[in-house]
Design a protein that fits this description.
The complex is a heterodimer of chains A (299) and B (314). Chain A has a single domain, classed as MetI-like (MetI-like fold, Orthogonal Bundle). In chain A, 73% of the residues lie in helices and 0% in strands. Chain A contains 11 helices and no strands. The two termini of chain A are 39 Å apart. With 314 residues, chain B is mainly α. A two-stranded antiparallel ribbon of chain B has the order 1-2. In chain B, helix 6 packs parallel to helix 11. The longest helix of chain B is centred in the first third of the chain and has 47 residues. In chain B, 49% of the residues are buried. The chains are: A mainly alpha (299), B mainly alpha (314).
Chain lengths: 299, 314
C-alpha cells in the first residue's frame, strides 16, 4: 500500500507543474471517454436495431404467432407467456424475499448463523443463471415430477432466481426506515410484529417495490434457465393454466436467431428485440419513479 | 386498529393473543430466511447427485483431463478441457475490454463527476448490465461480426472476438460500481495530504487513491469476471458451438474462429433431444458443477476482499 510518504517531495519546479497539468487533462479525458464508450456502443447498436425493426414492428407482429414466413411471424404467445410467468413468479418470490429480509433486519441477532445467511444470500445473487436452470430441472422436474417446459416450473425456477435480489433490496429498504419510528411504536405499546407490519413495512414498501420491479425486469430478460427446464421455442397457443407449456419472449428471440434469412435476422428478430427492450425499459422507468418517491419521502 | 382499541385494557388480557401471533410471525420470517439457505443447499445437492450419476459411467479423471468434447456424435467424448478453455478465452477477451474501462469510469465518477452528473451517468452505466444477454448475442451476431469482417476479412460468422466484446461491455458496470465504492472509501485526508504536498491530480489519483483502493479494485475484477464466466446466451449465439483448445500464442486463430464455452455446451445439450436418462443429459450437471465451483470460489474471494476494504478505513 502506498502511504502519503510515497508522494513526490513538495519542492516542485514550475516545469514539472506544467507537465503535471497536461497529465491531469489526459487523465480526465481518458476517464471521461472510458465512461462513455460502453454507453456509446450500446446506443449505436440500439439505433441500428430500431432502424431495422421499423416496418416489422407492427400490430400484425404483436398479435401473431411465430411462423416460418417472416412476414407472418409474430411474438404474441411468447409475450403472453412472459407476462403469465411474471405474474406467477412474483407473489412467492415477494413473500419469501420480504420475509427473509424482515428476519435479517428485525429479528436476527448478530451471530454466526446470521452472518452465514448474509454471505449465503450474497453468493446466491452471483450464481450463474444457467445453474438456476439446473436447480429447476433437478428439483421441480426430477424430484417433484412436474412436466418439462410448463408455466409452473418456469415461474417457480424464476422465483428462486430472483429471491436473493428481492431479499437484498428489501433488506436495504427496511434498514433505511429510521429507528425512531420503531421506538415510537414500542413506546405506545405496540408489539414487535405490530411495529413491523404497520410501521416498518409500509414505510419500506416503495423501496421493496423498486427492487421487485428491477428483479422482474431481470427475470423477463433471462433465457438460459428456461432452456434448462425444457421450455419449447415454438408455441402457437397461449397457455390457459399453470400446467400448460409456454414460451417466453427471450426464448422466441433465441429460436429466431437460428433462422438464416436476412428477413429474420434484420427484420423479425429486430422487432422482437425492440419489443423486449421496450418492456424492460418501461419496468426500469417504473423502478426509477418508485425510487424517487421513496427518496422524496425521507428527506 | 386494535392497538388503539386495546390501549386502555390491562396488558394481560391481550397478551395471550399477541404472544401467539408474535411467535407465529417470528417463525414465519425465519422460515423465509431458511429457504434462502435451503436454496443453496438445493443447488449443491442437485449438482452433486446428478454429477455423481454421470461420474458412475464416465470417469472423473477422463472428464477433467479429456481434450475432446463430443456429447452427441459417436464415439462420444466428455472431456471438459476444451469447454473450460473456451470460457477462459472469452473471459480473458472481455477482461481486456472491461477492466480498464471500468476502473477509468470509476475514477471519473468518484474523482471528477459532480453529484448531478454522477446521478445521471451511473444509472446509464447500469443499463449496460440490464440489457438481456440474448439481445447482446443478437447484437454480436448481426451487427458486430459483419463490422469486424471489414477489419479482419478472415473472421468466421461465429467467433470469439465478437462474443468477448459484448461480454466485456456487459460487465463494465460491475467493475465500475464496485471499484467506485472502493475509491470512495479512501479517506479524503489521504487525498488532501497529497494536494498539500503540491501533487497534481494525476499524481494523487495514480499514486495515492488507486493504490489505496487496490484491494477493492481487485475485488471488482474478481466479481465481474465471475459474471463473465457464467454468461450464457451471448456466447452461445455469437461464439458458436465448436469446442476446441485455443492456442493463445496465435491470437488470430484464438479470436477469429468459433469456440464453445461451458455454458454454451450446456445450452446445446438442453436444446437437443437428449432424454433424462442419457449420459449426455447427465453431463449437464457435471459441467454445471465445474461452473458453479469456479464462480462460487470467485464470489467468495471477491466478497471477502470487499468486506476487508470496507473495514479498513472505518
Amino acid at each position: 500500500m502506498t502511504s502519503p510518504k510515497d508522494i513526490p517531495a513538495p519542492a516542485m519546479k514550475l516545469t514539472v507543474e506544467r507537465s503535471g497539468r497536461a497529465k491531469d487533462w489526459l487523465l480526465l479525458i481518458v476517464c471521461l471517454l472510458s465512461t462513455c464508450v460502453g454507453g456509446a456502443a450500446l446506443f449505436t447498436l440500439l439505433a441500428y436495431v430500431v432502424v431495422d425493426a421499423a416496418g416489422w414492428l407492427d400490430w400484425q407482429f404483436l398479435s401473431s404467432t411465430t411462423s416460418r414466413f417472416p412476414e407472418k411471424a409474430g411474438i404474441f404467445p411468447a409475450m403472453v407467456g412472459s407476462i403469465y410467468m411474471a405474474g406467477l413468479m412474483i407473489p412467492p418470490a415477494m413473500v419469501m424475499g420480504i420475509g427473509a429480509a424482515v428476519y435479517l433486519t428485525e429479528y436476527a441477532k448478530p451471530s454466526r448463523l446470521t452472518r452465514f445467511i448474509d454471505i449465503n444470500i450474497a453468493n446466491l445473487a452471483g450464481v450463474p443463471s444457467v445453474v438456476w436452470g439446473l436447480l429447476g430441472l433437478g428439483l421441480f422436474i426430477q424430484l417433484f415430477d412436474m412436466t418439462y417446459g410448463t408455466l409452473l416450473v418456469g415461474a417457480l425456477t424464476m422465483a428462486l432466481l430472483i429471491l436473493p435480489v428481492i431479499t437484498i433490496t428489501s433488506r436495504e429498504a427496511i434498514r433505511a426506515v429510521p429507528d425512531s419510528l420503531r421506538q415510537a411504536a414500542y413506546g405506545i405499546g405496540a408489539t414487535k410484529w405490530q411495529t413491523i407490519s404497520r410501521i416498518v413495512l409500509p414505510r419500506a414498501l416503495p423501496g421493496i417495490l423498486t427492487g421487485t420491479v428491477l428483479s422482474l425486469a431481470r427475470a423477463l430478460g433471462e433465457t438460459a434457465p428456461l432452456i434448462m427446464i425444457g421450455v419449447p421455442t415454438a408455441v402457437f397457443a397461449t397457455p390457459d393454466s399453470p400446467g400448460d407449456k409456454f414460451t417466453s419472449m427471450t426464448m422466441q428471440l433465441f429460436s429466431w436467431s437460428d433462422y438464416p434469412q436476412p428477413e429474420f435476422q434484420r427484420g423479425v428478430l429486430a422487432a422482437g428485440v425492440v419489443t423486449l427492450l421496450v418492456v424492460l425499459l418501461s419496468l426500469n422507468a417504473l423502478a426509477i419513479y418508485l425510487r424517487h418517491r421513496f427518496q422524496g419521502k425521507h428527506q | 386498529m386494535d392497538t388503539t382499541d386495546n390501549a386502555d385494557l390491562p396488558l394481560d388480557l391481550t397478551r395471550g393473543v399477541h404472544l401467539g401471533r408474535e411467535r407465529f410471525a417470528r417463525s414465519a420470517v425465519f422460515v423465509c430466511a431458511a429457504v434462502t439457505v435451503l436454496t443453496t443447499g438445493g443447488i449443491i445437492a442437485v449438482l452433486l447427485i446428478h454429477a455423481a450419476e454421470f461420474f458412475a459411467d464416465w470417469s472423473v479423471w477422463d472428464f477433467l483431463t479429456g481434450t475432446q468434447w463430443s456429447p452427441a456424435i459417436e464415439p462420444v467424448q466428455y472431456g471438459v478441457l476444451p469447454l473450460v478453455c473456451g470460457t477462459l478465452v472469452i473471459t480473458l477477451g472481455s477482461a481486456i475490454i472491461a477492466l480498464p474501462l471500468g476502473v477509468a469510469a470509476a475514477v471519473y465518477l468518484s474523482e471528477y463527476a459532480r453529484p448531478k452528473v454522477r446521478a445521471v451517468v451511473k444509472p446509464m452505466l447500469e443499463i449496460l448490465a440490464g440489457v438481456p444477454t440474448v439481445v447482446y448475442g443478437y447484437f454480436a451476431l448481426v451487427y458486430i461480426t459483419p463490422w469486424l469482417k471489414n477489419v479482419f476479412p478472415s473472421i468466421s460468422t461465429f467467433n470469439t472476438l465478437s462474443a468477448s466484446i459484448v461480454v466485456g461491455i456487459m460487465i463494465i458496470p460491475f467493475v465500475a460500481s464496485i471499484s467506485e465504492d472502493a475509491i470512495r472509501a479512501v479517506p479524503k485526508s489521504l487525498r488532501m495530504a497529497g494536494y498539500g504536498l503540491g501533487a497534481t491530480r494525476f499524481s494523487v489519483v495514480v499514486r495515492v487513491v488507486i493504490p489505496a483502493a487496490f484491494s477493492g479494485i481487485i475485488a471488482s475484477f474478481i466479481l465481474a469476471l465471475s459474471r463473465a464466466i457464467g454468461e450464457t446466451m451471448a456466447v452461445t449465439i455469437a461464439a458458436g458451438q465448436s469446442p476446441r483448445i485455443a492456442n493463445l500464442l496465435n491470437l488470430e486463430d484464438t479470436f477469429l474462429r468459433p469456440i464453445e464455452t461451458m455454458t454454451a455446451a450446456m445450452v446445446n445439450i438442453g436444446m437437443s433431444d437428449v432424454t433424462g436418462d442419457s449420459l449426455a443429459y447427465r453431463s449437464l450437471f457435471a459441467i454445471g458443477l465445474v461452473l458453479f465451483c469456479m464462480t462460487f470460489m470467485m464470489n467468495i474471494l471477491g466478497s471477502w476482499v470487499t468486506s476487508r476494504f470496507r473495514e479498513k478505513y472505518e
